[in-house]
Amino acid sequence: MVESAGKAAHRSSAVAEEWSVPVLFPPQRPRVVVKADLLPAVSVLSTAALLGIPMGWLWSLLAPAERVRVITSNGQLAPLELESWHRFDDLAIFGFLAMATGLLIGVVVWFLRERRGPVVLVAAVGGALLAAWLGTQMGPAFANSKYSIDAPPALGAVISQAPRLESGWVILAAPLVTCLVYALMAAWNGREDLGRRLG
User: Fold this and answer.
1) What is the model's pTM?
2) What angle do CA 86, 49, 174 make, to 5 degrees?
3) SS3 for 98?
Protein backbone atom coordinates (compact mmCIF):
# COMPACT_ATOMS: atom_id res chain seq x y z
CA MET A 1 0.00 0.00 0.00
CA VAL A 2 2.81 2.36 0.93
CA GLU A 3 4.70 1.34 -2.22
CA SER A 4 1.68 1.91 -4.45
CA ALA A 5 1.17 5.37 -2.90
CA GLY A 6 4.86 6.16 -3.52
CA LYS A 7 4.58 4.97 -7.12
CA ALA A 8 1.49 7.10 -7.68
CA ALA A 9 3.23 10.17 -6.22
CA HIS A 10 6.29 9.54 -8.39
CA ARG A 11 4.08 9.10 -11.46
CA SER A 12 2.16 12.33 -10.76
CA SER A 13 5.39 14.29 -10.27
CA ALA A 14 6.74 12.89 -13.57
CA VAL A 15 3.55 13.94 -15.35
CA ALA A 16 3.78 17.38 -13.76
CA GLU A 17 7.37 17.73 -14.93
CA GLU A 18 6.41 16.59 -18.42
CA TRP A 19 3.63 19.16 -18.74
CA SER A 20 5.38 21.99 -16.94
CA VAL A 21 6.02 25.09 -19.08
CA PRO A 22 9.62 26.25 -18.97
CA VAL A 23 10.19 29.88 -18.08
CA LEU A 24 11.48 31.66 -21.17
CA PHE A 25 13.25 34.98 -20.92
CA PRO A 26 12.84 37.25 -23.93
CA PRO A 27 16.05 37.58 -25.92
CA GLN A 28 17.89 40.80 -25.34
CA ARG A 29 17.58 43.06 -28.38
CA PRO A 30 20.77 44.61 -29.67
CA ARG A 31 21.01 48.33 -29.03
CA VAL A 32 21.79 50.94 -31.62
CA VAL A 33 25.48 51.73 -31.53
CA VAL A 34 26.04 55.48 -31.87
CA LYS A 35 29.34 56.49 -30.33
CA ALA A 36 31.48 53.84 -32.03
CA ASP A 37 29.88 54.51 -35.41
CA LEU A 38 30.29 58.30 -35.46
CA LEU A 39 33.81 58.40 -36.90
CA PRO A 40 33.09 55.79 -39.61
CA ALA A 41 29.89 57.70 -40.41
CA VAL A 42 31.89 60.90 -41.00
CA SER A 43 34.21 58.95 -43.31
CA VAL A 44 31.22 57.53 -45.22
CA LEU A 45 29.67 60.99 -45.53
CA SER A 46 32.81 62.66 -46.87
CA THR A 47 33.80 59.83 -49.21
CA ALA A 48 30.30 59.54 -50.67
CA ALA A 49 30.11 63.31 -51.18
CA LEU A 50 33.29 63.28 -53.27
CA LEU A 51 31.53 61.08 -55.84
CA GLY A 52 29.79 64.22 -57.03
CA ILE A 53 32.92 65.35 -58.87
CA PRO A 54 33.20 62.35 -61.24
CA MET A 55 29.41 62.32 -61.57
CA GLY A 56 29.41 65.94 -62.76
CA TRP A 57 32.30 65.29 -65.12
CA LEU A 58 30.60 62.24 -66.61
CA TRP A 59 27.38 64.24 -67.04
CA SER A 60 29.24 66.97 -68.90
CA LEU A 61 30.45 64.34 -71.37
CA LEU A 62 27.08 62.62 -71.86
CA ALA A 63 24.64 65.52 -71.78
CA PRO A 64 23.86 66.84 -75.28
CA ALA A 65 24.37 70.50 -76.08
CA GLU A 66 21.52 72.58 -77.42
CA ARG A 67 22.09 74.17 -80.83
CA VAL A 68 20.85 77.75 -80.98
CA ARG A 69 20.89 80.56 -83.53
CA VAL A 70 21.89 84.15 -82.85
CA ILE A 71 18.83 86.17 -83.88
CA THR A 72 19.69 89.72 -82.77
CA SER A 73 22.76 91.90 -82.79
CA ASN A 74 22.87 92.00 -79.00
CA GLY A 75 23.33 88.20 -78.82
CA GLN A 76 19.79 86.95 -78.18
CA LEU A 77 19.54 83.22 -78.87
CA ALA A 78 16.74 81.04 -80.18
CA PRO A 79 16.86 77.21 -80.22
CA LEU A 80 16.65 75.36 -83.49
CA GLU A 81 13.72 73.06 -84.18
CA LEU A 82 13.54 70.10 -81.78
CA GLU A 83 16.75 71.19 -80.03
CA SER A 84 14.87 72.36 -76.94
CA TRP A 85 14.17 68.72 -76.12
CA HIS A 86 17.78 68.43 -74.98
CA ARG A 87 16.84 70.43 -71.90
CA PHE A 88 14.90 67.38 -70.71
CA ASP A 89 17.66 65.03 -71.88
CA ASP A 90 20.18 66.87 -69.73
CA LEU A 91 17.98 66.54 -66.67
CA ALA A 92 17.17 62.88 -67.32
CA ILE A 93 20.82 61.92 -67.82
CA PHE A 94 21.78 63.57 -64.55
CA GLY A 95 18.88 61.81 -62.81
CA PHE A 96 20.07 58.41 -64.03
CA LEU A 97 23.65 59.18 -62.99
CA ALA A 98 22.41 60.28 -59.57
CA MET A 99 20.43 57.05 -59.16
CA ALA A 100 23.46 54.98 -60.16
CA THR A 101 25.55 56.89 -57.61
CA GLY A 102 22.94 56.28 -54.93
CA LEU A 103 22.87 52.57 -55.79
CA LEU A 104 26.65 52.37 -55.55
CA ILE A 105 26.73 54.15 -52.19
CA GLY A 106 23.97 51.98 -50.73
CA VAL A 107 25.59 48.69 -51.76
CA VAL A 108 29.12 49.65 -50.70
CA VAL A 109 27.99 50.96 -47.31
CA TRP A 110 25.98 47.78 -46.70
CA PHE A 111 29.15 45.73 -47.05
CA LEU A 112 30.63 47.61 -44.07
CA ARG A 113 29.22 44.77 -41.95
CA GLU A 114 30.63 45.85 -38.59
CA ARG A 115 29.11 49.33 -38.98
CA ARG A 116 25.62 48.45 -40.17
CA GLY A 117 22.87 50.46 -38.56
CA PRO A 118 20.98 53.74 -38.62
CA VAL A 119 24.00 55.95 -37.93
CA VAL A 120 25.88 54.86 -41.03
CA LEU A 121 22.63 54.86 -43.03
CA VAL A 122 22.03 58.52 -42.20
CA ALA A 123 25.63 59.29 -43.18
CA ALA A 124 25.23 57.43 -46.48
CA VAL A 125 22.01 59.25 -47.34
CA GLY A 126 23.59 62.59 -46.44
CA GLY A 127 26.66 61.74 -48.50
CA ALA A 128 24.49 60.84 -51.49
CA LEU A 129 22.63 64.15 -51.17
CA LEU A 130 25.90 66.08 -51.02
CA ALA A 131 27.27 64.13 -53.98
CA ALA A 132 24.22 65.00 -56.08
CA TRP A 133 24.43 68.66 -55.08
CA LEU A 134 28.15 68.77 -55.86
CA GLY A 135 27.40 67.15 -59.22
CA THR A 136 24.93 69.93 -60.05
CA GLN A 137 27.66 72.46 -59.35
CA MET A 138 30.59 70.73 -61.05
CA GLY A 139 28.70 69.34 -64.06
CA PRO A 140 27.66 72.70 -65.54
CA ALA A 141 31.11 74.09 -64.74
CA PHE A 142 32.75 71.31 -66.76
CA ALA A 143 30.20 71.76 -69.55
CA ASN A 144 30.67 75.53 -69.71
CA SER A 145 34.42 75.10 -70.10
CA LYS A 146 33.85 72.51 -72.83
CA TYR A 147 31.48 74.71 -74.86
CA SER A 148 33.11 78.05 -74.15
CA ILE A 149 33.06 80.67 -76.95
CA ASP A 150 36.12 82.86 -77.39
CA ALA A 151 34.61 85.55 -79.62
CA PRO A 152 31.06 86.92 -79.84
CA PRO A 153 29.11 85.03 -82.54
CA ALA A 154 27.90 86.78 -85.67
CA LEU A 155 24.24 87.44 -86.37
CA GLY A 156 22.58 84.31 -87.73
CA ALA A 157 25.36 82.00 -86.56
CA VAL A 158 24.48 78.59 -85.10
CA ILE A 159 26.33 77.73 -81.91
CA SER A 160 26.19 74.95 -79.34
CA GLN A 161 24.94 76.04 -75.94
CA ALA A 162 26.31 74.16 -72.94
CA PRO A 163 23.91 71.69 -71.28
CA ARG A 164 22.28 72.91 -68.09
CA LEU A 165 20.14 71.64 -65.25
CA GLU A 166 16.90 73.54 -64.86
CA SER A 167 15.51 71.76 -61.79
CA GLY A 168 17.11 71.32 -58.40
CA TRP A 169 14.76 68.48 -57.43
CA VAL A 170 16.93 66.03 -59.36
CA ILE A 171 19.38 65.88 -56.44
CA LEU A 172 16.83 63.83 -54.47
CA ALA A 173 17.30 60.83 -56.76
CA ALA A 174 20.62 59.78 -55.19
CA PRO A 175 19.62 59.79 -51.49
CA LEU A 176 16.27 58.13 -52.22
CA VAL A 177 17.94 55.25 -54.05
CA THR A 178 20.59 54.92 -51.32
CA CYS A 179 17.91 54.69 -48.64
CA LEU A 180 15.84 52.22 -50.68
CA VAL A 181 18.80 49.94 -51.41
CA TYR A 182 19.92 49.90 -47.77
CA ALA A 183 16.38 49.21 -46.55
CA LEU A 184 15.98 46.32 -49.00
CA MET A 185 19.31 44.85 -47.89
CA ALA A 186 18.29 45.12 -44.23
CA ALA A 187 14.93 43.46 -44.92
CA TRP A 188 16.63 40.68 -46.87
CA ASN A 189 19.17 40.16 -44.05
CA GLY A 190 16.49 39.59 -41.41
CA ARG A 191 18.80 39.67 -38.37
CA GLU A 192 18.08 42.03 -35.50
CA ASP A 193 21.69 43.25 -35.42
CA LEU A 194 21.92 43.19 -39.26
CA GLY A 195 24.79 40.70 -39.00
CA ARG A 196 27.19 43.05 -37.18
CA ARG A 197 28.39 40.30 -34.84
CA LEU A 198 29.36 38.13 -37.79
CA GLY A 199 31.88 40.73 -38.98
Assistant:
1) 0.77
2) 50
3) helix
